[in-house]
Structure formats: C-alpha cells, structure tokens
C-alpha cells in the first residue's frame, strides 16, 4: 500500500525534480519551453508551480518522493505578477505561441489537476493512480463539482480514465501537441 500525504515546503525542491524527470520528454513541455536550457527552465517552472500550488491548493507526495500531484481549488487566487513575469521569461521565445493556444475552459467551480508526475523508475507500478485517487478524495470533500485537467500524452488519458476521468475535448495545436481536456465528475457529499 502506497502512503500518500501532503508535501512540506522543504520537500518542494525534490518534488520539482521528480516532475522535471517525468516531464523531460512530455509533448507539451517540449513544445512550450525553448530547447536552449530546456532542463533548467523545466525544473524552475516546476518549482514555481509547486510553490504556488502549495500556497493556494494541494500538493501530495508519496513517502519515498517518487511521485507528486498538485491540485488547485476553484477559489485559488491568481498568481502574483512576479510569478507571471518569471514564467514568461522561462518560456522565452515560445511565450507568444503558447499564449495563442485556445483550450476549452475548465468547468465553473471545478478543481484543476495542475500536474502529476512519477519518477521514471517508479512509473507503471500504480503510484500515479494512487496520487490521483488521493487528490480526488481531497477535492471531493470541498465541492460537489469535480476535477478538470489537460494532458498532451495519450498514455496519460488511459491512466486518468481508469480513475474516473472522461475526455471532454481534444485540441490539436498547429505545429504543436494534441491536448486532451478531461473531467472527473464530483460526487455528492454525505
């Protein structure tokens, strides 16, 4: 049985490294982040997003820090101007094309599963599914609505479908990846 718990601030650097490893070949990040300094930019972006998620939402890890998930509630405050400026700098010359992407908006009142990553040597053993189920459990305690996400890796679609998500839209980005928008409907609270 995998033990999933809330991450601490001190664990964020290790959690960001897990995400950077997991996203090294991910279609969206490969398209959205410049090749020049890609790994450094990816790690810093993951660090920024995890810090924001820890402040505004939920970051969960397993005991061995082999996987991490971050979710934001619909009430999350927008990121600071400094945060947004740094993200823009890290996207460099890709910022314009990333900014032009039009994906369907998440349903009103839904949590968003912002990121999920498992170290490559731990993938395929059920850790990703355990992290998602733990995140869904937390989200279900605060809303009747569900959780929305986007993924640009078709293998992830199957993982998310196994835990209750369904594809709601497929967006093909010109000279970019295919993005799957997915939703897991909430259940009534007792």
Automatic annotation (TrEMBL):
Entries under Pfam families matching the protein: Acetyltransf_1
GO terms for MF: acyltransferase activity, transferring groups other than amino-acyl groups
Residue ranges annotated for the N-acetyltransferase domain, each copy included: 2-187
Stored InterPro entries: Acyl_CoA_acyltransferase (IPR016181), GNAT_dom (IPR000182), Trichothecene_AcTrans (IPR052523)
Residue ranges of coiled coil: none
Keywords, comma-separated and alphabetical: Transferase
Protein name listed in UniProt: GNAT family N-acetyltransferase
The species this protein was found in: Pseudoclavibacter endophyticus
Upper classification of the organism: Bacteria, Bacillati, Actinomycetota, Actinomycetes, Micrococcales
């Amino acid at each position: 049985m995998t033990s999933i718990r809330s991450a601490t601030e001190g664990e964020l650097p290790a959690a960001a490294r897990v995400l950077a490893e997991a996203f090294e070949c991910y279609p969206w990040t490969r398209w959205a982040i410049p090749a020049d300094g890609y790994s450094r930019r990816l790690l810093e972006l993951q660090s920024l997003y995890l810090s924001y998620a820890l402040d505004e939402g939920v970051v969960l890890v397993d005991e061995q820090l082999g996987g991490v998930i971050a979710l934001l509630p619909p009430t999350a405050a927008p990121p600071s101007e400094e945060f947004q400026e740094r993200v823009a700098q890290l996207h460099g010359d890709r910022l314009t094309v990333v900014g032009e992407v039009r994906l369907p908006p998440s349903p009103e009142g839904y949590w968003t599963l912002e990121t999920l990553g498992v170290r490559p040597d731990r993938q395929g053993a059920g850790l990703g599914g355990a992290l998602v189920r733990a995140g869904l459990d937390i989200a279900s305690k605060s809303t009747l609505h569900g959780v929305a996400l986007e993924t640009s890796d078709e293998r992830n679609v199957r993982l998310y479908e196994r835990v209750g998500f369904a594809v709601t839209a497929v967006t093909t980005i010109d000279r970019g990846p295919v993005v799957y928008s997915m939703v897991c409907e909430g259940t009534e609270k007792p």
